From TrEMBL:
The keyword Transmembrane does not apply. It comes from the Bacteria. This is Nicotinate phosphoribosyltransferase. The lineage of its organism: Bacteria, Bacillati, Bacillota, Bacilli, Bacillales. Catalyzes the first step in the biosynthesis of NAD from nicotinic acid, the ATP-dependent synthesis of beta-nicotinate D-ribonucleotide from nicotinate and 5-phospho-D-ribose 1-phosphate. Gene3D superfamilies: Aldolase class I (3.20.20.70), nicotinate phosphoribosyltransferase (3.20.140.10). Pfam families: NAPRTase, NAPRTase_C, NAPRTase_N. Transiently phosphorylated on a His residue during the reaction cycle. Phosphorylation strongly increases the affinity for substrates and increases the rate of nicotinate D-ribonucleotide production. Dephosphorylation regenerates the low-affinity form of the enzyme, leading to product release. Its EC number is 6.3.4.21. Belongs to the NAPRTase family. Residues 155-332 form the Nicotinate/nicotinamide phosphoribosyltransferase domain. It is an enzyme of class 6 (ligase).
Length: 482
């Protein structure tokens, strides 16, 4: 884990901009930033928002101490002593709103909104994105795996392959949010209260004269949690028969063996055959755990092949994001204070997807009262009343505005909730188990078409007419100036 003061866990350009604001006397001007991502990972139809708890921990501990100040002074001779004194007095006094962890989220909607002095709101960009991008990516991958595993047990085994310690520990938490049952990482277990599970490695078997001696000794040491790894030499010829013998000895002592673990070879064939052998030996209660570079595609295929696997141990492909190593979340300025009031700002790009949506905005989940299902997310300017009071609104696709419909009688659920006000945390954060339960509940809000793993339907994220017009007006203003 990155230990100690994380205040300098930021890009140098943030400190440079803070300095330039300070030099120009604009450091107290207010600014509004939106955090969002533009593209869903893994071809999935949704993402699972995670990372807020770490963001909150980080913000609450922000402070430039002697070591940080001395380092900055040494790094940049232009940083004047009075600027460094200002940093010493730094306190986070801004407002932050965010969607709760575990929320199902979509591209181009604000997930975190930060509003306050530019001096503070600029500093935190890097760390906020770092935490949110990684944890949201892993929670989303875990959710895909959970989606195919159904009620089977899912164990997070990734630590040894994670991109270093923080990723392992926070990744284990993200996986748990999305429905994993336990982790092998003891630090994650201790820190977050996630249940921990473990079998044994090949080294245990290799470290004995015979496989059966290894199994018996392990069972004698931990008789209530015996899961034996059966593939060190030959799964069907020696591993499973030896495990059966050990299970019978345990029965004689009034104990029941938990499981065997398969870690190589054809997992469908081996699990079916091992199941038969265990059943024939009168051990129907002994479960089968499988591991070996598993991901959602393999688990789906193994189930389709009729594999008799009860528990899936998933490591590398989960904790690293597998095919997608990063979520591309961004932190964009959407309004700034001018003459005491907010003015919306825009970032223009040749790529229409990269044009930002200006203004202080809220996002609502529009839920159909008849079906209880979410119809669209609706991004509106903060001052707009219609959606808040349930008036008729126009839902249209911002890329193809002619595709539209009107809705009324809906329920509009605000997604952004206050997290900090005046720099103070608003209320308690939910517990990890509350987050996990909330996430599972959230999934029921969506039609299965949006949740399927392969070629899901695109869930609409719409702009209000006012938000769309503001965007178009600013676009035209700046393109005309060019
Ligand atoms: N029935 C199956 N259908 C599809 N993929 C499978 C099946 N059984 C196993 N796999 C996957 O195939 C990949 C290769 O497994 P395999 O055991 O052949 O090679 P390996 O990992 O090199 O084995 P070992 O650990 O003995 O070196 C793994 O990701 C494994 O999960
Ligand atoms: O396969 P993953 O999803 O990453 O799950 C974790 C892997 O870690 C262990 O293997 P080990 O470190 O001994 O390496 P190996 O089995 O790949 O040789 C375990 O036996 C799993 O195979
Ligand atoms: O407990 C296990 O079987 C385990 C833990 C971490 C990695 N691979 C396997």
């Amino acid at each position: 884990m990155v230990n100690g003061n994380m205040t300098l866990h930021t890009d140098k350009y943030q400190i440079n901009m803070m300095y330039a604001h300070w030099v120009n006397g604009t450091q107290n001007d207010k600014a509004v930033f939106d955090v969002y991502f533009r593209r869903l990972p893994f071809g999935n139809g949704y993402a699972v928002f995670a990372g807020l708890e770490r963001i909150v921990d980080y913000i609450r501990s922000l402070s430039f101490g002697d070591e940080e100040i001395a380092y900055l002074a040494e790094q940049e001779e232009h940083y004047e002593p009075a600027f460094l004194d200002e940093l010493r007095r730094f306190r986070f006094t801004a407002r932050m709103d965010a969607v709760p962890e575990g929320t199902i989220v979509f591209p181009n909607e604000p997930l975190v909104r930060v509003e306050g002095r530019i001096f503070e709101t600029q500093l935190i960009e890097t760390a906020v994105l770092n935490f949110m991008n990684y944890q949201t990516l892993i929670a989303t991958k875990a959710s895909r795996i959970k989606g195919v595993a159904g009620d089977d047990v899912l164990l997070e085994f990734g630590t040894r392959r994670a991109q270093e310690a923080d990723a392992a520990v926070w990744g284990a938490r993200a996986a748990y949010i999305a429905g994993f049952h336990a982790t092998s990482n003891m630090l994650a277990g201790m820190r977050f209260g996630i249940s921990t599970k473990g079998t044994h490695a090949h080294a245990w078997v290799q470290g004995h004269d015979t496989e059966s001696e290894a199994f018996d000794r392990y069972a004698a040491a931990l008789p209530d949690q015996v899961t034996l790894l059966v593939d060190t030499y030959d799964t069907l010829a020696s591993g499973v028969p030896n495990a059966i013998r050990t299970a019978k000895k345990l029965e004689a002592k009034g104990k029941r063996m938990n499981a065997i673990r398969l870690d190589s070879g054809d997992l469908a064939f081996l699990s079916k055959r091992a199941r038969e052998m265990l059943d024939e030996a009168g051990l129907p209660y002994v479960k089968i755990v499988a591991s070996n570079d598993l991901d959602e595609t393999l688990i789906f295929n193994l189930k389709a092949q009729g594999a008799r696997i009860d528990t899936w141990g998933v490591g590398t492909q989960l904790i690293t994001g597998g095919s997608e190593p990063a979520l591309g979340g961004v932190y964009k300025l959407v309004a700034r204070e001018k003459d005491g009031a907010y003015v919306p700002v825009i970032k223009i790009s040749g790529n229409p997807e990269k044009v930002t949506t200006p203004g202080l905005k809220d996002v609502y989940r529009i839920v159909n009262r008849q079906t209880g299902k979410a119809e669209a997310d609706y991004v509106a300017l903060h001052e707009e009343e219609d959606v808040r009071v349930g008036k008729r609104i126009k839902l249209f696709d911002p890329v193809h505005p002619y595709l539209h419909k009107y809705v009324e009688g809906y329920e509009a659920r605000p997604l952004l909730r206050p997290v900090f006000e005046g720099g103070e945390l608003v209320g308690d954060l939910p517990t990890l188990d509350e987050i996990r339960a909330y996430h599972a509940e959230q999934l029921k809000l969506f039609w299965p078409e949006y949740l399927r793993k392969l070629n899901p339907e695109t869930y609409p994220v719409d702009l209000s007419e006012a938000a769309w017009e503001l965007k178009m007006n600013l676009l035209h203003r700046y393109t005309k100036q060019l």
